[in-house]
Amino acid sequence: MRKSGLPWKPGSLQPAPRLARRKTEKIRGKHAALCFATMAVMLGLPLWWKTTETYRAALPYSQIGHLDSMLLRLRVPVSVVFIQGSLPIVDQQKLPFTVVNERDVPLKCKMKLKCRFQLAYRMAGSHEEKAFKKDTIEEAEAALPLPKEDTLGSLNIFVIPEKSSLLPKDKMSYIGPKRTAFVRGTQVRQALTVMGQRILQVAQSMSLTDEVLAAALGDRLPEDKVSLDKRRPLKSSLGYEITFSLLNPDPKSHEVHWDIEGAVENYVQPFLSLLSVVGNFSMDSQILYYAMLGVTPRFDAASSSYTLAAYSLPHVINPVEARLGSRATSLYPVINFLLYVPERAHSPLYIQDKDGARVATNAFHSPRWGGIMVYNVDPSAYNTTKYPVKVDVDMVPVMEVFLSQMRLLFGIPPPQMPENFLLGDPPREGLRSWEVDRLVWARTVENVATVVTTLTSLAELLDKIGNIVIKDNVASEVYRAVDAIQEAVVELSAGNLELAFRYSREAVTSSEKAFFDPSLLHLLYFPDDQKFAIYIPLFLPMAVPIFLSMIKIIVENQKARKDIEKVD
Amino acid sequence: VAMAAPLVLHLLLALLLGSGGRSGAEPERDSLREELVLTPLPSGDVSATFQFRTRWDSELQLEGVSHYRLFPKVLGQLISKYSVQELHLSLTQGFWRTRFWGQPFLQAPAGAELWVWFQDSVVDVDKSWKELSNILSGIFCASLNFIDSTNTVTPTASFKPLGLANGTNHHFLRYAVLPREVVCTENLTPWKKLLPCSSKAGLSVLLKAERLFHTSYHSQAVHIRPVCRDAHCVSVSWELRQTLTVVFDAFTTGQGKKDWSLFRMFSRTITEACPLASQSHIYVDISRNSQENETLEVSPPPTSTYQAVVLGDRRTYAVYDLLNPATFSGSRSLNLQLRWKQFQDIGYIHYQPAQDRLRPHLLEMLIQLPANSVTKVSIQFERALLKWTEYTPDPNHGFYVSPSVLSALVPNLVGAKPANWEESPLFSTMFPVSDSSSYFVRLYTEPLLVNLPTPDFSMPYNVICLTCTVVAVCYGSFYNLLTRTFHLEEPKRSRLVRWLANIIRRIRGVPPV
């Protein structure tokens, strides 16, 4: 600050040059201050900005934003083959042509979902005609030549003459174990329209039923469409670990043997080999001794047996689970199947349902966890003095129960068809091809929905918290996920279910990897007070003089301007 | 797991293929032997050594579905996934006082010790080792996840495979000790869960955590190794030994008395044998020491006795067979003295120097010691400052140096018959010895606690503040110099000051202002 108002010592300097010198000195000071300020702004600020910046790789924010409101079109390619005599001649001449039927599925979120059935009508070839000369419908189906397009998700529907004896009189359609169905034709006017409705109904019940969509979309559907029962299936995952455990709480009285090797080989492996499209499965079994249920069963004097009531079943699992042992070597979800041989003091043991009636299978299951079956020892075995009693488990009923539970856990409920549909028996392995297709449809849609949620919330999070470091590998995973999900959507609308499923799985893997990358957390919790603790001792003493001299320069300038105005 | 619903199943699966019944009575593929050795120690304390051996006649490495009966599933999966040849994990609290207690059957260093032989099919041993230690850390609730390259060594001589091994290429061996590890109930519970009879029947009933940790020494271990299935040794079986050694203190647990009983030690008694065990024995050391006049009385009287040369000495054990219907109550103590000699002659030295922050020092010496001699091995070291993030939360506690290991073949005092390895009790067959004239001993010293110089941890902030102050001061004066205008100024004095100055000037003879 300049000090003024004092008389200059006479004789040292002449007043005029002294004043001029003071003025130049003042201007020099002003320039120096301005210089400091510019240096601080031009050099210091960028330097500080550059050195303290967190690395944030660019992300496809706009593409992720579009995902949220995208249109998901599920195309089901259906080839419809008319056998001679199944249509009026007039309509036959119109063939071949393709009809597209599109149905909107209402969703709670911004995403739109459309099911599109593409029905390709054509007349039957001579090979196919020959097959329908057979006596029963199963034989006819077996005699059919392999369709050209027997890919995952596609359907083949044959329309047979109205008077055909292949179907029982009261049945309108037959759904086979493969991707094939037969529908009875008609001779009425507008036959194609009538048939169109029938075919659509069959095609729908073989692929995208409401159950399938509910299993896939869960809480994205409006409330009235979802019931608790539908939320049972396991989440989509790359693989599953299946563990069969035999619980023997009373090895003093029972020496239990089970032929799990044979059962796995004969029943479970064939079943799972059909599901191998959906994920990798690995199995093992174990026997646990002294593993008790958490509930003491009630004695029922009337039948001299013990019962487990429905309301106590939730308490059964937890104490047992401590013994089951988590699988340490992989991260896939574990599905447990427990066979419980009750201790001698508590047998026979029966499970009661909510109405107090005995459950016929003596089994129950817990969604997304697994199933438990109680296996009672034949009471006549106790007519011996030699303990422990040898118990050979009959694996057929046990595996029937476990496989039915497995179907439920994977979200393949027993199909419910209208009255006039005839349902073919499942093949030896226990799963119809189109049931697997329905599962793949559900899983693909579920994966797409999961990826959309994951990516949207990740983008939102990264956008909101600026402290998060986004490394290149995270960014590349996000890009990969976005690419894969777009591919999946394209393949879905093209009707290539298998490719779409593969892409959707890729997208899930990449998006989860990005979302759970530990590098996101590195600088997340760098508190602001520590920042200030470091900045204040350095920046305050440097910034205050610059600010003050700037203010002073501005004030002086204004004053000078006012003086000039006054002079004017 | 919250929801469960009874289910009316639609049994639509026609599974009537094959007979479904069991395919005849196949021989048991796995067996369990359990035993407890009670040894009254010379100091009046008593040691209890549990061993549970599960043998599984199966090739664990095979891919595909595995079916577990007595062998715990979680360990089986671990072995097959990481192609483990041998695994030895011990968690120990306290230090075995060899001078007062004599030789232990099973030796372990304080803290956690893990050594693993991998099969030669493993490509990246370090990665497998890291993953394996992490998983074991989860299984046993121990901080084995802190095992990394800084505390892992590959010994070349001391740790040979204890089971069947094709080659002993030490590249497939990893050894680590965490001396700081504190062993507690949360480590015992998962260990107990691995037992087929859990803690419901047989010897495992005695494993009450509250008592086991109220002891002066607690060491639990898991040893997995491949062994010969039969005398021909054509096929391989897997052996899992779960061992637990505790030393009950005569003063804290026994109230100063040398009378011991199972109830006094474990506050439990055995009511039944584990029905799954093919052998279930309790051994009580009742050998007489000629220098002492005390005799040991055990009641109820043992069903039989067993004599063996154990750790170079002939010992007599009272044997109780739990599978033989009988009841037991307790045991007594006896003074037992052990004396051993030391020798000197260095034969083989392997020294692997440390690399900072990568691996520790390894010094191995093969020495033959003359009788009645004292051998000192000393290593000089310098105390260095660590990087400030490398200090533990309580650096003033000091830093642990892993205990040193002494593995020795000691000649037997008495001659012994070569016993059938498979038949003899478990405690004498842990370390395979080729000829019976000597026995194998492994001693661990106490971990060394070193005080390192610790810096003032507020230093970084002080440095920041100091440099900032210096910068601010320099910068401030520099700024002032450059931006301010300077001119001379008449000193302005108050009238009083001027009057005083004039007086002084007058005195000095200078004209007044």
TrEMBL record, chain A:
Residues 1-21 are annotated as: Disordered. It comes from the Eukaryota. Keywords: Endoplasmic reticulum, Glycoprotein, GPI-anchor biosynthesis, Membrane, Transmembrane, Transmembrane helix. GO terms for biological process: attachment of GPI anchor to protein; GPI anchor biosynthetic process. It is found in: Endoplasmic reticulum membrane. Its main location: endoplasmic reticulum. The chain crosses the membrane at residues 31-49, 532-555. InterPro entries: PtdIno-glycan_biosynth_class_S (IPR019540). It is a multi-pass membrane protein. GO terms for cellular component: GPI-anchor transamidase complex. Pathway: Glycolipid biosynthesis; glycosylphosphatidylinositol-anchor biosynthesis. It holds the Pfam family PIG-S. Belongs to the PIGS family. This is Phosphatidylinositol glycan anchor biosynthesis class S.
Automatic annotation (TrEMBL), chain B:
Keywords: Signal. It comes from Sarcophilus harrisii. GO terms for cellular component: GPI-anchor transamidase complex. Residues 1-24 form the signal peptide. This is Phosphatidylinositol glycan anchor biosynthesis class T. One of its GO terms (biological process) is attachment of GPI anchor to protein. InterPro entries: PIG-T (IPR007245). The gene is PIGT. The lineage of its organism: Eukaryota, Metazoa, Chordata, Craniata, Vertebrata.
